[in-house]
Amino acid sequence: MLYALSWFLVSSLLALWSLAAWAMHAAAVWAVSNAGALTGAASEAASGAAGLRLPDWLAPWVPPEFAQALTSLLSGLAPAVESLLQAAPALAGGLTVATWVLWGLGSALLIVLGAGLHLLIAMWRRRGGASGPRPAGQVAA
Question: What is the mean pLDDT of the chain?
């Protein structure tokens, strides 16, 4: 009975792991596939980065050199972010391979967990931990 319970637990964890991997893959592929549509928003944000200014309550606490450096950094990063967003849809195929590899590793670990539980139960039963019928020649100590 313990064997069945342990393998039921392992198979339930495997089902949850598969469901989680599928859901995360679907969400990631959707995000990567739609990332190309965000390039227009990124270019608008890049053009708006030059007009960024600190809130009035924060301006006295931040040196103007730091604010200027931050603004120039944001405007310099905008072309790199835009090129990454344009290249993102090409990553969807690699994402599928990565998902399968991670799912396989996690599944293998769960099977090893099941085998370990199986061995622990077998060792526990051999040592006399199980209360079951004993052979006629064996006397309980």
Answer: 81
How many CB atoms neighbour CB 114 within 10 A? 19
Q: Which pTM was predicted?
A: 0.58
CB 78 within 8 A of CB 43: yes
Task: Tell me the Cα Rg of the chain.
Answer: 29
Among residues 85, 87, 94, which one has the least CA distance to residue 25? 94
Confidence of residue 117 (pLDDT cuts 50, 70, 90): very high
Hey, what long-range contacts does 34-38 have (CB within 8 A, 24 or more apart)?
A: 35/85, 35/88, 35/89, 36/85, 36/86, 36/88, 36/89, 38/85
Q: Is there a contact between 114 and 14 (Cβ–Cβ < 8 Å)?
A: no
C-alpha torsion sign, points 111, 117, 119, 122: negative
Report d(CA 70, CA 73) in Å as an integer: 5
Q: Which pLDDT does position 55 carry in this prediction?
A: 73
Q: How far apart are CA 64 and CA 112, in angstroms?
A: 59
Q: What backbone torsions phi and psi does residue 63 show, to the nearest 5 degrees?
A: -65, 140
Question: What residue has token string 């370990």?
Answer: 116
